[in-house]
Amino acid sequence: MGNEEQVLLLSWRASVFGLRVQIALEEKGVAYTYREEDIFEKSKLLLESNPVYKKVPVLIHGDKVVRESLIILEYIDQVWDKHGPSLLPADPHRRAQTRFWADFISKKIYDSGRRIRHSKGIEKEEAKEEFMRHLKILEGELGEKLYFNGDSFGFLDIALITFSCWIHTYETFGGFSVKKECPKLMTWVRRCMERESVAKTLPSPLQVYQIACLVKKKLGFE
Amino acid sequence: MEIENSSSSSLKLFGSWASSYTHRIQLALKLKNLTFDYIEEDLSHKSPALLLHNPIYQKVPVLVADGRPIPESLLILHFLDEYFPHNPRQLLPKSPHDRAAARFWAHFTDDRLGPAVAAVFASSGDTQVAAVDRFRSELRLVEAELTDGVFAGRRFFSGDQIGFLDIVLGCGSYWLAVFEEVAEVKLVDAGVFPRFHAWLRDFEEQDEVKAIIPSFGKLLGYARGLRKILLGGGGGEADNGGGAVAGVEAGDMGKLQ
User: Fold this and answer.
1) Average pLDDT of B131-147?
2) Is the Cβ–Cβ distance between B61 and B52 less than 8 Å?
3) Cα–Cα distance for residue pair B38/B102, rounded to 1 Å
4) pTM (two decimals)
5) Model pLDDT for residues B14-69, shown as the tens digit of each residue
6) How many other β-carbons are positioned within 10 Å of the β-carbon of residue B92?
7) Strands of the sheet with A64-67, listed across from one edge
8) For residue B7, what pLDDT is reported?
9) What ipTM was reported for this prediction?
10) Which is higher by pLDDT, B255 or A144?
């Protein structure tokens, strides 16, 4: 069915979106080639594969190009459906809920996190408040479950866990403690970090912080 | 438990008559031949039920299926395929790559194209000129995809029949002609965008689409009222225009939720 074709992932080592794809590929046991992109000097291949957004991640599977992390995750789930459990739940209502929250994370958590890093003064304070509010909503969604997906690790866990390596960065830039405010979420993070796919994929919080400082400087947000 | 047909399922749609996002769902339900109850929302006075069913975004459309709510039009479209898997009219393509492509361009529509149209409609003068340029460059990407990209050679994005991406892009594109008249600007030149133009014409000719989309006159009235407000004139004389506008921000008008 074509799932023996070469899989190439264009990504960036600290991209919360790219890391999602890596975890998904690891979960499914799919062999792939990873190509690191310099986000300040994008390769010709990246610009040609994603001319609309010019962003990572991009999955190139044989001659097919797939863009947008959550779209890539569903693609992986569908193509390698015989490889391990499904990333998405089976029930249509739960699938809709999963997609809803994954999209919420991509927009709300990412956006407020970025503003914490790059803004000052009142804007920064507002970003911090929003960020914590959204995390608390997600913590509510987790409830007493082991994973967002229920008893087993799945799509929504992948969507959020990649932000965990960024927490130290947000806390340092923002001057607040996520760990204190969202203890249940932290327990979930530790549980996810026990999975090989997560542990071997995510960069260390310190690496991410160093990268974030570099990015901020290069973007001129000092 | 598999639900085979809507006579054993209850479907309730919360929507707004001028909202393209609502039209997407109404069209999908029509194509699938599913019966449902419709609740028209006054967007300036949203019902407690709507706020209960969509606490995070508080927007229409929301579909309540057998008592459980699904917000966000794109999610509802996916849900309808999955909840009624034996319905002959499946909206999303089967192949993983086609599905990914359809989803990507649906994302692009809401993320880039919609806001670009909204920016044209909410501006005037030099700002509008720049906004029109931006819209045209976004539409060129769609035109290119229809010309020699993934959708090349197809009558509709889904093939011979309208499907997911046609619904997503189509329900909203009929506003273009309305905005051209109200904002006195040319947006879709058939010479520059021949494939998009042909696709839109074919889409609007479909019986199900004609049955769903409000009349040009009604949309025109609504748009006139909206533009007055966006350009700071006050008013809102259009049918439900004032109500719909209260939930709208300039620059985000394309959402109409």
Assistant:
1) 96
2) no
3) 27
4) 0.93
5) 999 999 999 999 999 999 999 999 999 999 999 999 999 999 999 999 999 999 99
6) 18
7) A33-36, A7-11, A58-61, A64-67
8) 57
9) 0.95
10) A144
3-state helix, strand, coil in chain A (%, to 5): 60, 10, 30
Look at the alpha carbons of A59, B115, B75, A182 in this order and tell me if their dihedral is positive or negative: positive
Which residues in chain A touch residue B79, judged by CB atoms under 8 angstroms apart? 92-93, 95-96
Residues of B in contact with A92 (CB under 8 A): 79, 82-83
Q: Are B230 and B249 in contact (CB under 8 A)?
A: no
Give the whole-angstrom CA distance, residue A95 versus residue B195. Answer: 35
Query: Residue B160, exposed/middle/buried by CB under 10 A (0-12, 13-18, 19+)?
Result: exposed
Residue A85, preceding peptide bond in cis (omega within 30° of 0) = no
- For residue B125, CA distances in Å to A196, B122, B231 come to 57, 11, 11
Mean pLDDT of the B218-247 span: 66
Bridge partner residues of B149 (DSSP): none
Predicted confidence at residue B237, as pLDDT, reads 40
Which of A54, A76, A100, A104 to mutate to test binding with chain B, by most B CBs within 10 Å of its CB? A100
Q: Are strands A58-61 and A64-67 parallel, antiparallel or unpaired?
A: antiparallel
Tokens of B21: 């996002």
Domains of chain B: 11-83 (3.40.30.10), 96-216 (1.20.1050.10)
Chain A: closest CA distance from residue B77 (Å): 10
User: By the CB < 8 Å criterion, does A82 face chain B?
Assistant: no
- State both tokens at A175: 């001057």
Across B84-103, average pLDDT: 97
Q: Residue A3 — pLDDT band, cuts 50, 70, 90?
A: low
> By CB neighbour count within 10 A (0-12 exposed, 13-18 middle, 19+ buried), where does A39 fall?
middle
SS3 B127: helix
Give the separation between CA A64 and CA B95, rounded to whole angstroms: 12
What is the enclosing helix (H) or strand (E) of B40?
A: strand B37-40
Residue pair B245/B226 in contact by the 8 Å Cβ criterion: yes
Question: What pLDDT, on a 0 to 100 scale, did the predictor assign at position B246?
Answer: 32
